[in-house]
Every structure is written in C-alpha cells, then in structure tokens.
Amino acid sequence: MVVTVKVVRQYSMRVKRECVMEQVRRSLQEFEEKATELKKVHNNEYLKIKLDRTKADIKKMKQQHQTDTDISFDRDQLDKAEEEELAAFTKRIEKEQVAQLKKALNDQRDLFAHMISKERAIADEVLQKTRQEYDENMKTQQQTIDSLSNQARSQLEGLQNDCSKLKGLTDNLNVEYLAMRFKVFKLEELYSDLEKYEIRADLRGFAIKGRSVKFHKFMRALTYNGHIFDSEVYYLNPAPWSKPSTDLVKIVREDDVNKMVRAHAEQGTKICLLYLVSRYEDQDPDDVPMESSD
After folding, report:
1. pLDDT tens, residue by residue, 95-135
2. For residue 159, which of 97, 135, 144, 165 sits 20 to 30 Å off, Cα-Cα?
3. 233 assigned to some structural domain
C-alpha cells in the first residue's frame, strides 16, 4: 500500500513535471515564434529604412547633380558674360587709346608744323640776307675782276708786243737746243725673243741738236757715231704698250723720220730707241763724236 502511494505520487509528480515542461516548451515555442516574427518585422523595418535611405540618397544625388549642372550652367553663363563684357571693355579702351593717340599725334603734328613754319621763315630771312650779301659781294668781285681783267688785258697786250719783239730777235739768233736723243741697239738679226734685244745688243747712243730732226741729218749722225751706212734702221714705237717683237718701224726715207718725230712728240718724249741690223762691223765709236748738230 505504501509502495502504491509512492508510485502514484511519483507518477503524479512526473505528470505534473511533464505538464510544466510542456507549458514551458509551449511558452518557449511561442516566444521563439514571437521572436521570429519580431525579427521579421525588424528586418522588414530595417530593409524599409534602408530602402528609404537609398531613395533619399538617390534623390539627394539627383538634386546634387542638378545643382552641379545648374552651377556649371550658371558658371558658363557668367564666364560668357564676363568674356563679352571684357571684350566690350577692351574695345572701348582701345577706341579711347586710339582717340588719345590720334589727338596726341595731331597735336605733335601741329607743333612740328608750327616749328617748321617758324624755322622756314627764319631760314628764308637768313637766305634772303645771304643772297643780298652774296649779290653785293658778287657785284664787288665782278667789278674787281673787270678792273683786273682790263689791267691784265693791257699787260697781255704789252707782253704780246714784247713777245713779238723777242720772237723777231730770236729768229735772228742761232740758238742750238736738243732735238732728240737716241739709244742704239746693234743686232745681227731681229730676234723673236724679247729678252735677246737687251742681252745680245750693243747699246750705243747719240743726240741731235737743232730745231728739228731731218732725214739727212739723222743718217749723217748715224755715220758720225760709228754706225755703218748700209745697216737697216728701225725705231720702237714710243707708245707704252709697244714691244720690240711686234712694234718696230723701219726707217727708209724722209717721211719715216717725220713719222718718228711726230710719234715721240705725241708721247711727250725726246728719247728714241733705235735698232740697227747689220752683219758687218762698224768703225770704232770712240774715234767719232757722240753728238752732232745741224
């Protein structure tokens, strides 16, 4: 009996325990379900808040982008307006500067024109005075020149008379003067080499005094100075460019001597170079005089 009671008690306690445990389990399950629902609600609220925040960020970004676009547009408009205003200001400044420069240039031009006009007036006055002084000096000098010219004319007439008298006296006097001097090169033949004229020639000379050189006087002087009579006689053209190989002129007659005298007179010299070509020996020039006169 006692055992049955204990068993019953144990059983009832077990049943009670199980009931309590079942209630606790149900309470836990309900709590978990409520927690799960609360978690779902929390997650939904979190997602909703996140979605709202994302929408707000997107809206803010759109607003910021629009604001940036508006600012950029306004900035471009301001830059364009500033450029236009600066260009207009620059043109206005340039026009003002050009006007000022033109005014300054005109003022300088007027000033220079006034100065030039003033200097020109002074120069004209000085020139007029100079011209008057020059005319007066020219008049005085002309008078002086006329006076001197008259005196010179009188003196010239006197000198001409004196010259006429002296000429008459001179014609009556037998005055000797040098007509021409000759340097003679003695050759056996005419060489084509120019150097041979100076190396192999026998240089001799003589002079002719008198008023002129005649053919007979010239030939006689050659004979007197030891040159044989039958030699061929040549003279070198006195022109500066003359060469013995090409510019020797043969003397045969009176006309050749006259041409020789005229050629040397045209060149203003009295020294003549003669070339005598002969294969015979001449007489000793020391036995004859070196000069002859007519």
Report:
1. 989 999 999 988 888 888 889 988 888 988 898 888 888 88
2. 144
3. yes
